[in-house]
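Hey, I'm writing a tutorial for new members on how sequence and structure tokens pair up, and I'd like a real worked example in the thread rather than a made-up one. If someone can provide the structure for the chain below, I'll link this post from the tutorial.
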Amino acid sequence: MKSSKFFFVAAAFVLLALWPLMAGQYGVDLVTKIMVFAIFALSLELLVGSTGLVCFGQAAFFGIGAYATVLLTPQDGAPSLLWLLPACVLAAALYALLVGALSLRTKGVYFIMVTLAFAQMAYYVVHDTPLGGGTDGIYLMAKPVLGTLLDLDKPMAFYGFTLACLAAVFGFLTLLLRSRFGRALAGIRVNEQRMRATGFSTYPYKLATFVISGGMAGLAGFLFAVKDGFVNPELISWHLSGEVLIMIILGGLGHLRGALIGAFAFALLQEFFKSEAIFGEFAKHWHLGLGLSIIACVALLPRGLVGVPEQVITRLRGRSGRVRDDSVVEVSHESV
């Protein structure tokens, strides 16, 4: 089973690496956007699927990373990637530290509401003050470079850099969840009270996880700002937090692969129902088709898309078992 999971992930990243050779400009741009949201989904998967902390304010860290990218970029030239990227990730991580230090003292629905409240506070700061340009947003004047080696203004260079970031985040989370720290997170998810009884102080573990998750969301926000060259308050709205939560549920909670699959599935479903070539005038109501599809997936696939192969194998084994049982009954009847 582990070898099949490794093969799936390796094949997925190889396919992403070869995608620019097969797709046009639109296809490359679309997959770049999906990879950015896959990083965003992985950041929330660390909280929800791996630690059991349902956060409804993840968009705040994503938006802060995006806004920091624009606000820290000088007006007179392209900034260096070496300092701009760490600064954006750090800005999101620091806000996550503040939010986590306070919100992690609550549990359940109260934790959800507190994280949502902090996200809305960040939303109104950029929406109602000149800092973030108000409802009009602000434009990125120049995209970062790494000397003469890397210019993120070039689509192919940015695609490769985004893919490298996605692979790095996925690899980091894989190692993290297999470490002692990751096993502690799994214990907190299953039974936090028992973890405390065994001597673990769970609060530092949860706070560290919250900060790491916020930093990764900030990385995704940085990539999004560089890709579009524009940011607005919608990047911090609760709608985006809801969308990324749907992504990891659609893909399958508790699996890093599920976050990747869910991000791609959600974005491709959006593109499918928005297509006027397929749905004509009904494409204007694409939210209806998307919502019905998500409801169907949740109802029919309780483990998400990542559990489809196992679900199919289980059903096939069940059918073959019933066939064997029926044949035994027929044979015994004939012998009698």
